[in-house]
Model the fold of this input.
Amino acid sequence: MPNRSTDALFQLIKSLGKAEKRNFKLFMKRKTAGEDLKITMLFDALDKMGEYVESQLLKNKSIKKQQLSNMKAQLYRQILTSLRSIKEEENIDIQLHEQMDYARILFNKGLYHQSLKILDRMKELANDNNQLTHLQQILFFEKKIEGLFITRSMQDRADQLTLQSDDVTSKLSIANKLSNLSLQLYSWYITNGHARNTKDEKAIAAFLENNITEDAKNAKGFYERLYLYQSYCWYAFIRQDFLQYYRYTQKWTDLFTEYPNMIEVETAHYIKGMHNLMGAHFDLRNQSKLSETIQQFEKFTHRKIVEQNENNRILTFVYLNTAKINKHFIEGTFTEGLQLIPYIEEKIKEYELFLDRHRILVFYYKIACLYFGAGMNEKAIDYLNKIINWKVDLRTDLQCYARLLHLIAHYELGNFDLLEYLIKSVYRFMARMENLSLVEEEMFKFLRRSFRVGAKALKPEFQKLLEKLKKYEGNPLETRAFSYLDVISWLESKVYNEKVQEVIARKFKASKRGKSPVNND
Done:
């Protein structure tokens, strides 16, 4: 597993680019105090480390153990100060905060009219960029000035400020409720995966209905609509209603077409929207649209707002390569997809301090599926072991299918002695899962029968399983099982004596021609 340091200062230093490090050194050179020189030495020592080891720092005679905590805290502040000096033009929040500082300084000097002029310019900038929270602060400050001093800045000032405040407060209230709803739905998915049965579906539907009001459904502003579309997006995705999922991911990304300047302001939200749009095309098996959107997204990754922003670079790396792997899954070009793995591995190592465990797990599973589809079962098992042996409380569904694929890969290798132990292990793991889907229930029964049949006589049992699972392919609640593990194509590969990727490639080509994918040989 990636070696994840929890030291905040170390993570901050490792996130710096060459230009940012150079700027920090120049920034510190302007400060000549002896303590500042020690801080620069601490910076250099941390920058050279591959991982954070405090004992190595203390080998430096200039760094005393009793001073280290204070030195690290001071270095952390100095780095942020140096970053602020070069990042202020890139971020609307920083620009508005700086202008608010100027307005407060002028206010404290008794220069009320000058302060109001800055606030007017801020209001225009905040309105242009849909910055509701800043607008609220600006209006509070304006009301404070007008309430304490007679500025005679304009007629009907009180009425205008009151109407503006009420409007902003209303929009903020709706945006807050919808952002809470979106976050809670997304959290449900991260914890549980897709809805497993009608009970889950009803619970999610009731939750959505109880937390969304009519004024929220008819939201007009950028942020209100963004969080509204996100909420419906997660709702549809959890329920595996992939057509509705696509519609709302398209609305999500279209919102940025309607407000193009917001791509610069809310880049991460735009990237996430494009990720979900590519995911929707994959779930609907719309290869042409997926290819088109991948090209559009790859072109976007070369923009300045991505290349000069660490967070945006990491996000685009994850989502672009996830989409590329998914494209290989649709087309059945697993062997070709293996070419992506060295680059992905390199980037996972480079970004290991910043990637969350959920994204790494998903990458490992997709890489394992590439190897499995390409017939390289030993390599698939290596990646599946990384998931199985990583003790995390995320995605029980992913953990389940990793174990099933692990079992199948060992069957392919003929590891029959080990297979009987693995069957029992997967059986126990699935037994702890609540509310199994119908497909999972059939797999569960298959495992139970396997105890009696024995590992070497499993092939006829797999053929029986294929016949039973085929009838669930059109069931919306069973989509989850087939999207995580294309057990149908694997079982068909056993029946037709083909490679898994050959079965999937044949199905893909047949779907493009509008013909039946059945092998007639």
